[in-house]
């Protein structure tokens, strides 16, 4: 679909914050829980400001990377979509490629 | 002791850092923001302490919203979780504060932050700036139209010149604001692309421009009020000054009342703008009615008496008869005249461009009315003004093909150039006399005699 293509184009690489938001949405969560989960997953290394979190979730919903599942006590819950998972997978491959290249070219001492 | 105070805060929606710094400084002085309005912001006095403020923009925010929207509440919940407390809002601008030493920054992704600012500014700041600029430009064009119609009135009217310069300043400032915003946007985009943050906005140049603009606006307003105070009554001046606060109160009261009644944002916006429009027209109508009824016009004459002039058995009109000192009178030209209803009027308008002294001796309309005279002495301060005035005076509209200007002998009035107006080949009482540094326009009932010319030369010191 055109929207999915646009999303892929727009998010060719994910920032750490995007990456961890999507990871935390492998399970249905609300925004506040996402903040807590990201903090827990990264031991406080990656922080997401409230303004940034709101914008990210809003954009992800618009791009169909995540979907809104339910609203409980005015709290919106989200979960990752197939497109979101694909993007995570793509990011995983990109970062793995970086890791492998580093190991081979820097640590392995292969001739450049 | 009064612990709540209101302060006039000048701010620009797109300069969030300036506002944050200002609020933090005020908190250190013991003033904590409670509510913000278009001009006046409310603060509560408490023990001074360090408080961090964050200004953010929320695209759904609007003064017309009856309450905090669900999405906005979600936004506030996220902020609370990060240690930020919601303080107040003004349209899309949301203000949060935190007393924690190192709160989680409100925005941690500069790209998202810039995209959000851009989205909000596209919705409010930019359309509003463009609309007001266009309104100012339209107003300026209308004002400049007067210049085409009559450059003499244009150059001699200090209030018009002042309002034009204020409009021009407002246009320049609006364009400057938009330009600085777009430049900031471009620079921030570039900076983020290179891994940096949004560019800091507050700089010396902005502050200098703001100070110059505000000094000009307040200086001009001060001059305008001083001018009005000398030309109209204090009550008239009060009505003029009260216009803005009254209309602002009306507009905000309508918004607040409809919010209380939980009217939707669209309904509130439509009704409040309608109320403001009707209020503006009603206020102007009241102002004009009161001015006409009580007579405190922009007329600076003090020395006059009124006469009730009977036209027919049922119709009459009240005339003002002035008794100003004028250098040349009908009596000078025509000899003693036994008439009690003459009005001797003088009006001096002086601006940077032109000094216009207009004199007239007139009477209420009657079959046996005595001769009336009218003359103007113009002293242009610049050559281009002299040329424009000359061009205007000698201009004959195409449809007036029965009017001509005949050149006069320069020695008659000792002029550089002189013209006598003819109507259907008959000389009239209208003369335009050009001297080196002044222009005199004479408008008599009949063509002048040699003797009258000598009297005019003597009286007007030609």
How does the overall form of chain B come out from the CA principal axes? Answer: elongated
Computed Rg of chain A: 16 Å
Strand order of the largest sheet of chain B: 9-10-11-15-14-13-12
Strand content of chain A: 5-15%
How many strands, what sense, and barrel or not for the largest sheet of chain A? Answer: 3 strands, antiparallel
Number of domains of chain B: 4
Low-confidence stretches of chain B: none
Name given to the CATH homologous superfamily of chain A: Winged helix-like DNA-binding domain superfamily/Winged helix DNA-binding domain
Return the average pLDDT of chain A rounded to an integer: 89
Features:
heterodimer; A: 112 residues; alpha+beta; Arc Repressor Mutant, subunit A; three-stranded antiparallel β-sheet; 3 strands; B: 462 residues; 4 domains; 13 helices
Account of the 3D structure:
The complex is a heterodimer of chains A (112) and B (462). By secondary structure, chain A is an alpha+beta fold. Chain A has one domain (2-107): Orthogonal Bundle (Arc Repressor Mutant, subunit A), CATH 1.10.10.10. Helix content of chain A is 61%, strand content 13%. Chain A is built from 5 helices and 3 strands. Chain A has a 3-stranded antiparallel sheet with strand order 1-3-2. In chain A, strand 2 and strand 3 form a beta hairpin. The radius of gyration of chain A is 16 Å and the shape is elongated. The termini of chain A are far apart. The mean pLDDT of chain A is 89. With 462 residues, chain B is of the alpha+beta class. The termini of chain B are far apart. Chain B has a 7-stranded antiparallel sheet with strand order 9-10-11-15-14-13-12. A 3-stranded antiparallel sheet of chain B has the order 1-3-2. Chain B has helices at 16-28, 70-81, 110-123, 125-149, 151-156, 158-193, 204-231, 234-260, 265-294, 330-334, 383-393, 410-413, 450-459; strands at 4-8, 31-36, 40-45, 52-57, 85-90, 93-98, 304-310, 316-322, 343-350, 354-362, 373-380, 403-407, 417-423, 426-434, 439-443. Chain B folds into 4 domains: 4-106, no CATH class; 108-231, no CATH class; 239-295; 323-459. The radius of gyration of chain B is 31 Å and the shape is elongated. In chain B, helix 4 (125-149) runs antiparallel to helix 6 (158-193) and helix 6 (158-193) packs antiparallel against helix 7. At the A-B interface, helix 3 and helix 4 of A face helix 2 and helix 3 of B.
């Amino acid at each position: 679909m055109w929207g999915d293509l646009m999303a892929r184009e727009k998010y060719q690489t994910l920032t750490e914050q995007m990456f961890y938001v999507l990871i935390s949405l492998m399970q249905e969560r609300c925004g506040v829980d996402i903040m807590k989960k990201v903090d827990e997953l990264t031991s406080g290394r990656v922080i997401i400001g409230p303004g940034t979190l709101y914008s990210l979730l809003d954009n992800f919903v618009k791009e169909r990377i995540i979907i809104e599942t339910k609203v409980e006590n005015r709290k919106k819950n989200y979960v990752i979509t197939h497109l979101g998972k694909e993007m995570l997978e793509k990011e995983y491959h990109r970062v793995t490629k970086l890791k492998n290249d580093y190991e081979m070219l820097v640590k392995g001492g292969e001739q450049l | 002791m009064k612990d709540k105070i209101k302060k006039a805060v000048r701010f620009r929606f797109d300069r969030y850092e300036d506002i944050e710094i200002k609020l933090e400084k005020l908190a250190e002085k013991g003033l904590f923001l409670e509510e913000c309005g278009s001009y006046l912001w409310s603060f509560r006095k408490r023990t001074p302490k360090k408080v961090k403020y964050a200004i953010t923009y929320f695209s759904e925010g609007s003064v017309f919203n009856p309450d905090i929207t669900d999405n906005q509440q979600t936004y506030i919940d996220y902020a609370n979780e990060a240690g930020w407390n919601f303080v107040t809002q003004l349209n899309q601008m949301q203000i949060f504060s935190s007393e924690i030493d190192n709160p989680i920054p409100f925005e941690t992704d500069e790209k998202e932050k810039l995209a959000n600012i851009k989205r909000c500014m596209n919705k409010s700041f930019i359309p509003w700036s463009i609309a007001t600029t266009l309104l100012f430009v339209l107003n300026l064009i209308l004002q400049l139209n007067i210049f085409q119609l009559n450059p003499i009135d244009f150059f001699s009217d200090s209030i018009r010149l002042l309002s034009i310069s204020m409009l021009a300043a407002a246009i320049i400032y609006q364009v400057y604001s938009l330009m600085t915003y777009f430049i900031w946007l471009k620079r921030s985009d570039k900076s983020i692309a290179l891994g940096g943050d949004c560019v800091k906005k507050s700089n010396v140049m902005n502050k200098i421009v703001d100070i110059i603009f505000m000094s000009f606006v307040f200086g001009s307003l001060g001059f305008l009020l001083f001018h009005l105070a000398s030309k109209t009554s204090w009550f008239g001046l009060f009505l003029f000054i009260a216009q803005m606060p009254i209309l602002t109160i009306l507009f905000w009261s309508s918004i607040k009342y409809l919010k209380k009644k939980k009217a939707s944002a669209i309904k509130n916006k439509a009704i409040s703008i309608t109320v403001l429009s009707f209020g503006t027209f009603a206020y102007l109508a009241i102002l004009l009615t009161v001015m006409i009824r009580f007579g405190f016009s922009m007329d600076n004459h003090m020395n006059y008496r009124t006469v009730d002039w009977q036209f027919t058995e049922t119709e009459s009109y009240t005339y003002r008869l002035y008794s100003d000192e004028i250098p040349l009178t009908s009596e000078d030209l025509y000899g003693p005249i036994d008439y009690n209803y003459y009005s001797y009027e003088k009006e001096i308008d002086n601006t940077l461009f032109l000094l216009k002294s207009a004199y007239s001796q007139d009477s209420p309309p009657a079959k046996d009315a005595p001769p009336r005279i009218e003359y103007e002495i113009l002293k242009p301060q610049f050559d281009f003004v002299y040329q424009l005035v000359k061009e205007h005076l000698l201009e004959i509209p195409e449809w007036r093909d029965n009017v001509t200007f005949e050149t006069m002998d320069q020695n008659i009035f000792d002029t550089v150039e002189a013209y006598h107006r003819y109507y259907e080949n008959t000389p009239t009482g209208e003369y335009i006399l050009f001297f080196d540094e002044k222009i005199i326009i004479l408008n008599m009932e009949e063509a002048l005699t040699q003797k009258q010319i000598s009297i005019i030369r003597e009286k007007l010191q030609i």
